[in-house]
Amino acid sequence: MKIMLIGHRGYIGPVAANHLTRALSGAEVHGVDANWFDGSESEAFPDAAFASQRRADVRDLGPADFAGMDAVVALAAVSNDPIGKEFEGATAEINSEAVLGAARAAREAGVKRFVFASSCSMYGAGSDSFRKETDTLNPLTAYARSKVATEVGLRPFATDDFMVTSLRFSTACGASPMLRLDLVLNDFVATALRTGKIEVLSDGTPWRPLIHVDDMSRAIEWAVTRDGDTLVEVNVGSQDWTWQIGQLAKDVGQELGGVAVEINTNAAPDNRSYRVDFSRFAALAPNHQPQKNFAEAVAELAAQVRGMDFGDKGVRESRFIRLNVLRGHVTEGRLDGHLRWTEGG
After folding, report:
1. 254 vs 201, 299, 306, CA distance in Å?
2. Distance between CA atoms of 55 and 9, rounded to whole angstroms?
3. In which element (H, E) is residue 186 found?
């Protein structure tokens, strides 16, 4: 099976490539990426897991780029709410318009399966009930709106010859050769190790489902091999990995030996709070359910962070925060305001 990962040099890509080559006999994984974050990879980046890698912007991909592929996994994205707020135009272009263009090109090239890395953030401000796939969406940010727009745009593409799967992932976390520290669990572990305490910027009450990047890769494996409906949109995660942010900080602190936790109880309310129903994913993919142990995940992440070079930077000022890297590229003229490489980039 030949699989193309669009955005393979992001946080998820290297972990997914490692998993797919190990889990699927004879799998051949190819990667294409804009390479915004070159220099952030660890020595563990799995170059050997890729049959090919090349630099290209997802906005420029056409049918020839997907020739011979059996499945395409769209990971490329402006990856979180702060970046989406600062680069709203690029967020819509890349996360939605370009992904839909890639789907169109892949279908024209004869690809049979298209997997979209979507997000549970599209539920926005939740209620006391657990959000199901059939519930009304309430995206609160440019990032979340882009995910909704892509899912809606992909629906007409689904046919017997072009199977579409939108994986509504919980908030990602865990160790990766392309580590991000602008994710809540990763931030808590890194700041605990660097400062000796965990600072929660919100009042700690919002609910958030989490999923380890290893378990995201298991879901991707399922999506590129599944049978059944031509179109599936499904919440991916587990109830066991759903926390209120304040309790998550306390649990991380406990796993790291009793690190102190400071919660900003005077913070303005964070409406990005939601709990999610994962029963459909459990029914559709019983052999690809999340398996990661929380204590193991924190220990692995802590070991990686201890070996990282922050220079004289704090965690939130470091190159492991994606927005910092993109701002640097734009300030130095390597990327333009739409996050395209310039002639000097």
Report:
1. 19, 12, 18
2. 10
3. helix 184-195
Residues 33, 125: Cα–Cα separation, whole Å: 32
Beta strands in the chain (DSSP E): 2-6, 28-33, 50-55, 71-74, 113-119, 163-169, 171-173, 197-200, 207-212, 231-236, 242-244, 260-263
Owner of token pair 């102190």: 260
Q: How far apart are CA 122 and CA 209, in angstroms?
A: 13
Residue 134 and residue 233: Cα distance in Å, rounded? 10
Q: What is the pLDDT of residues 124-157, one digit of tens each?
A: 876 668 999 999 898 999 999 999 999 999 999 9
Side-chain half-sphere exposure of 221, counting CA atoms within 13 A: 24
pTM > 0.90: yes or no: yes
Q: What is the set of domains in the chain, with CATH numbers?
A: 2-331 (3.40.50.720)
